[in-house]
Amino acid sequence: MSDIGSDHHDAPIIQGPGATPGRTPTNFEQATGHEREEHLAAMEGKEFFDLGPLLLNKKGTKAEPTIVPSGAESRIVGCCGAPGEDHEMIWIVVERKHEFDRCPECGNVYKLSEHGFDPANLPEAKHEHHH
Question: For the whole model, what pTM was predicted?
Answer without folding.
Answer: 0.58
